[in-house]
Design goal:
heterodimer; A: mainly alpha; two-stranded antiparallel ribbon; 14 helices; 2 strands; flat; B: alpha/beta; four-stranded mixed β-sheet; globular
Chain lengths: 323, 412
């Protein structure tokens, strides 16, 4: 415990401080030419970004909301439907399945991604020789184009492919038709996605773990805590803001999953791997129903917004910013 | 100071304006020629060269026009073109496949008046293609190629299995008998093909079942089609002459054929010389196996039209007339790119194919070919085939149930 000694400034010093403050306020009240120029240039420099945001982000958002209220074919004349597109989506069993598929993907993918990335980040302590090389290797799938990854994984998954071939030569049993069987296809997409996506979170967690002060873990070790307790009780709590960030970003991106089912399965077999963004793409650009696609996009936006809000509300219970 | 800030703002606006500029449908070149872009699907470097040569030759012949090719892959072409047509960024000259005419027609210019004005003799073209490229009694494109869907086969695999090569007009029973002999040692007779044109042709040849009716309407709940699709699915599940589908991969069938894993593949004449060039085996062609009530095949082809946004439709039509003229189509046929839609030029392609029996097969197939109608929901049907046929072909659901699911998702 530190005792603070009250300091007493000499009277002259206090008076000087007060007079400096008055001078500053005076300067504020009477802007000079220099200040005026700065005030002009500020908005001018911000203008390109502001306009960019307005034209390329805010305007499309508003336009998509308007389009969602119309029957809007890609070619042809739009007609006003009101909430017709939303009503159709809520009563469409296929859209229901598409939402359920997306939720299933999120529920399987997010925890797996976090466990794998956190596990590897915890393993890659400074004591591991060549940890930087491992970090690069683990990060490579995240920066490789997803299309290339998916093509390679298709070769692994298909009957007669790497997995099936290896299993057959080792045990004589055929592997399931991972992408051609509706019971396996989503799981196959989740596994491929975890491999593709854990690298980013791993880097974030690894950097956060490196930043945990050594004196805390040393003190705990001296007090008799084992490695597991140190990780669980100290490190994990100290890196909780990073875990929160990783969870948020992973949740948001996983709700937007598109490339993997688009290339691996086209949403099939049946609609078993059709996700919301794939549905939006198909409705908008394959079937030319921009109104329906926009309505589905707004439903996705509301889902993501809701989940993110719940995350923010829940963070008070487990995220520690006061390390 | 205020002036400086305004200049900075104006510059920023100008920059944003520039980035917002898209391509215009036509303009002028530095030497005063009318510049126009031609959208076309491109299958590779050789294909690109073929089409660039067409653009250059036609530009040189006309003198006052400069045509530039805008290539994209076939898979992306229709998505891109629909978007361009709807956002006023489409080029003047637009390629369209016969079975997708109805889908693009709202963004395209009807050509009937221009055909009359320029005295184009439509009877010189294959009649099924003029019909295929028309919608609502308007012609939207002049055809450049045509072709009935047919069966390609690997002659080496037939010879190795001691199976006589199929002859034009063979039956479904003969096909299954040959297929059983060809399926051994991890190889199969044929891989399932879920592409709309090919699976619909296979069923049409088998029992006459069709989703797209002659008048262009769509009925996915047609029971005859479901029966035909069940026969196709049974080739995998019952007869074991086809492998299972590894998910929705439209190129699976042709990849398996080219890799020598299957003995046959359903395709069109437009791919024949490309397949012959890539295959490490002797390629042969025959008709699709005909079942009871079947015996017909769909024919499809493509043409070039003019987008409604084109500022110079007369010049664009002059280019079209040249692009689908005897000279260009004759060259394309001789180069093996396209079985010409101008009937007078078809022999050049047949002579160049160098595949024994191709003339007889074409003759036989053309005699039984019916044009594949276009429908505004054709893309949706194609997409649903890709997603859902996996279930019937892999034996997870009956063909009738699969078609019921597909029908429920199509707009009524």
């Amino acid at each position: 415990m530190t005792l603070l000694k009250p300091t007493k400034a000499p009277l002259a010093e206090v008076e000087a401080t007060i007079s400096r403050g008055r001078a500053k306020r005076k300067a504020k009240a009477e802007p000079d030419a220099q200040l005026g120029r700065r005030t002009m240039w500020g908005p001018a420099f911000a203008l390109p970004h502001g306009l960019g945001l307005a034209i390329f982000t805010l305007l499309p958002i508003v336009v998509s909301l308007v389009i969602s209220l119309f029957r809007w074919p890609l070619l042809g004349t739009p007609s006003f439907l009101g909430l017709g597109n939303y009503e159709r989506l809520f009563s469409d069993p296929i859209f229901g399945q598409v939402v359920a598929n997306t939720v299933l993907f999120v529920v399987l993918y997010v925890p797996l991604n976090l466990v794998v990335s956190l596990g590897l980040a915890a393993w890659l302590t400074p004591r591991i020789k060549g940890r930087h090389i491992f970090r690069v290797i683990f990060f490579i799938p995240s920066i490789t184009p997803v299309v290339a990854n998916v093509v390679v994984w298709r070769m692994l998954y298909q009957p007669g492919g790497f997995i099936d071939g290896t299993l057959q030569s080792a045990t004589g049993i055929s592997a399931p038709n991972f992408l051609g069987d509706e019971h396996w296809a989503m799981m196959a997409i989740v596994v491929m996605s975890v491999w593709q996506g854990f690298g980013y979170n791993m880097l974030v967690f690894s950097a956060a773990l490196d930043a945990v002060p050594e004196n805390l873990t040393e003190a705990a070790a001296i007090d008799g805590a084992n490695a597991w307790t140190i990780f669980w009780r100290i490190k994990l709590k100290l890196i909780s803001p990073s875990i929160f960030f990783g969870t948020m970003m992973t949740l948001i991106t996983s709700f937007q999953v598109f490339a993997q089912p688009f290339i691996l399965t086209k949403g099939g077999p049946g609609s078993s791997t059709s996700t919301i963004v794939l549905y939006i793409y198909n409705q908008g650009f394959q079937f030319h129903q921009l109104g329906l696609a926009s309505a589905a996009a707004w439903i996705l936006f509301v889902i993501i917004l809701g989940v993110t809000a719940v995350q923010f509300l829940g963070q008070k219970k487990w995220v520690h910013y006061d390390a | 100071m205020r002036k400086e800030a305004l200049v900075a703002g104006a510059l920023a606006l100008g920059l944003i304006g520039l980035t917002g500029c898209g391509g215009s449908s036509s303009g002028s070149t530095a030497d005063g020629k009318t510049a126009m872009t031609w959208a076309m699907w491109v299958g590779g470097t050789e294909d690109q060269k073929n089409w660039e040569k067409v653009a250059d030759d036609v530009s040189n012949t006309l003198g006052d026009v400069k045509i530039t090719l805008q290539g994209s892959t076939f898979q992306d072409y229709f998505t891109k073109m629909s978007t361009q047509l709807s956002s006023n960024t489409a080029p003047c000259l637009v390629a369209v496949q016969s079975l997708r005419t109805a889908q693009l027609k709202d963004g395209m210019l009807p050509l009937d008046d221009l055909v009359k004005k320029n005295n184009v003799d439509l009877s010189a073209f294959d009649a099924s293609m003029i019909k295929g490229l028309s919608a609502d009694n308007n012609l939207y494109a002049l055809p450049y190629d045509v072709g009935p869907v047919m069966m390609f086969y690997n002659k080496d695999m037939f010879d190795a299995a001691g199976v006589p090569v199929p002859k034009a007009g063979w039956t479904a029973d003969e096909f299954v008998a040959a297929a059983k002999k060809l399926s051994a040692n991890g190889k199969h007779a044929i891989a399932p093909n879920t592409a709309d044109l090919f699976v619909e042709s296979q069923v049409l040849a088998y029992n006459g079942g069709r989703v797209l009716k002659e008048d262009g309407t769509m009925d996915a709940s047609d029971p005859t089609f479901a029966k035909g699709l069940q026969w196709v699915s049974d080739l995998t599940n019952k007869e074991k002459v086809s492998p299972q589908l590894p998910g929705g991969d439209p190129a699976f069938s042709s990849n398996e054929f080219l890799a020598g894993n299957t003995a046959m593949n359903i395709d069109g004449p437009w791919s024949l010389l490309d397949v012959k060039g890539k295959a490490k085996f002797k390629v042969g062609v025959t008709t699709l196996p005909a079942g009871p009530g079947g015996g017909k095949t769909f024919s499809a082809g493509s043409g070039w039209g003019i987008s409604k946004q084109c500022a110079t439709p007369d010049k664009a039509f002059a280019a079209l007339k040249e692009m689908t003229g005897d000279k260009v189509l004759g060259n394309l046929a001789a180069a093996g790119r396209a079985l010409a839609a101008r009937t007078a030029q078809q022999t050049k392609w047949i002579d160049n194919a160098g595949i024994p029996g191709v003339a007889e097969t074409l003759k036989s197939a053309e005699a039984t070919a019916v044009p594949m109608p276009s429908n505004t929901n054709s893309d949706q049907l194609g997409q649903l085939f890709n997603q859902y046929l996996v279930k019937s072909i892999n034996g997870q659901q009956s063909a009738a149930d699969v078609m019921k699911d597909i029908a429920a998702q199509l707009p009524r």
